[in-house]
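Quarterly update, task 2.4: nicotinamide-adenine-dinucleotide-bound model.
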Amino acid sequence: MTVAHITGAARGIGKSIALRLARDGHDVAVSDLAVMAAELEATRKEIEAIGVRAVALHGDVSDPESVRRLVAETAGQLGSLDVMVANAGIAQTKALLEVGPDEYDKVHAVNGRGVFLCYTEAARQMIAQGTGGKILGAGSIASHKGFALLGVYCSSKFAVRALTQAAAQEWAPHGITVNAYCPGIVATTMWEEIDHDLGEINGVETGESMKEMAAGISLGRVSTGEDVAKLVSFLAGPDSDYMTGQSVLVDGGMIFA
Ligand SMILES: NC(=O)c1ccc[n+]([C@@H]2O[C@H](COP(=O)([O-])OP(=O)(O)OC[C@H]3O[C@@H](n4cnc5c(N)ncnc54)[C@H](O)[C@@H]3O)[C@@H](O)[C@H]2O)c1
């Protein structure tokens, strides 16, 4: 039995990934900010109902001590850490000329430093275990293309792609693969926020920005969390053993890399 940890799993894509990895047979640790305790506990219960072991942990991925504790408690309570999914992330929808330095740092603290901390702490644990592992990060279509009004967010998601490529090369000798999943437009709270903020900036109704972006999706619909979880299931399992350093698009056909 392998053990997976998913950050930012109280809701959205992280929750879909946690439930899918549980159905795949992994024991699962889910984590999120302490303010999300009630939603996280609901996720934990749903995982347990699938029939695997489940623990819920609170922690902020931008904080080194938090991430150290999340990894140590996962291994302590479930016996090992074999799959780390650095999923937690935050959005920011703002013209570059309006972004202050602190706002820039806030996004990078979670999306860039958070992924760096989760990757490195997971790798330390996996190297100590000596049994290899799978490390995954949340990229985005924004890891492959810079979008207007999402510039800082995009720069933080490009960082995920770079970290994924470097980590894959550094940790291959330890039997660890490192890949990122890159969704397009997924109907979650994050996209509701982006849609709302784009609407305010561009003076259009709520829902219109999402509709406009969705019109460019070849497969004709926005994504569900489950669409993303299917790719993560593959990247977390043995069928992807010969794949590392990749940032794989799962966007219904928006960006063609
Ligand atoms: N929704 C999309 O369209 C989309 C597209 C591409 C990539 N992504 C990425 O997928 C990931 C999940 O996005 P989502 O749409 O489910 O977002 P969401 O906002 O619905 O969920 C994100 C979760 O992360 C948690 N979180 C935020 N900051 C945290 C921190 N510092 N420490 C720990 N947890 C934290 C939140 O509490 C929340 O539960 C993010 O990295 C996001 O950038 C989302």
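Highlight for this quarter: The mean pLDDT is 97.
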